[in-house]
Amino acid sequence: MRCMIAVAVLMSAFAPSLGQAQSAAPAGPRPLGTFQSWTAATHNDGGRKLCYAFTRATRSEGVPGRNAQNIQLLVTHRPNGRDQVAIRSGYTFGRGAELRLTVGAAELPAYTSQDSAFLRDGRAAVAALRNGREAQARAPGPNGRGTAQDIFPLAGFSAAYEAISRECPPTAAPRR
User: Fold this and answer.
1) 60/150 Cα distance (integer angstroms)
2) Which of 73, 87, 108, 143 is 20 to 30 A from 152, alpha carbon to alpha carbon?
3) Which residues, in sequence order, are CB contacts of 44 under 8 Å at separation 6+?
4) Which sequence spans correspond to the domains of the chain?
């Protein structure tokens, strides 16, 4: 759970800043490239290298007043976990709310915390994202009222995923 909260912090703090001018501060993200609808970057968090790719929703319905810049689909590699897939919704989920991400015929469940949802099976999610054209997220709206629906483009996902995978390759398992 702590790892997923860190992903949420990354989503809120670093992803929006990639579109802005980069400062000389070493704490900021370092872009790896833009791949059609996706952006890839790396960031050091307490001496640990994180790599992530994200896109923003192209269409959002069901919850008025959300800022489209804050509705994001993100895949993160970190030293203690790869293929961590999260969605930032732009509103706070109700307690116990669940989100479903649909990519083609695949329906992928996610649990929620604050304004983010975390896919339960990151590997399955990445496989679906690599083979899909768009991803549709559906979840209860704020306070369980209505249904929020967000559409994310997948053009460029595979190239962005390869970029973060090259920058943050898997670490070898410790020998016994």
Assistant:
1) 4
2) 143
3) 26, 27, 50
4) 2-16+31-167
Residue with tokens 């790892």: 3
> Could you report the per-residue pLDDT of 47-62, keeping only the tens digit for each?
899 999 999 999 999 9
Bridge partners of 44? 49
What is the pTM assigned to this prediction? Answer: 0.83
Question: Cα(84)–Cα(123) distance, rounded to whole angstroms?
Answer: 8
Backbone angles phi, psi at 131, to 5 degrees: -105, 0
Between CA 110 and CA 66 the distance in angstroms is 20
User: Which residues in 140-172 are b (16+ Cβ under 10 Å) and which e?
Assistant: bbbeeeeebbbebbbebbbebbebbbebbeeee
CA gap 10, 77 in Å, rounded: 12
Q: Could you name the CATH architecture of 2-16+31-167?
A: Sandwich (2.60)
Tokens 């703090």 correspond to what residue? 13
Q: What are φ and ψ of residue 87, in 5° steps?
A: -130, 130
* Side chain identity, residue 17: S
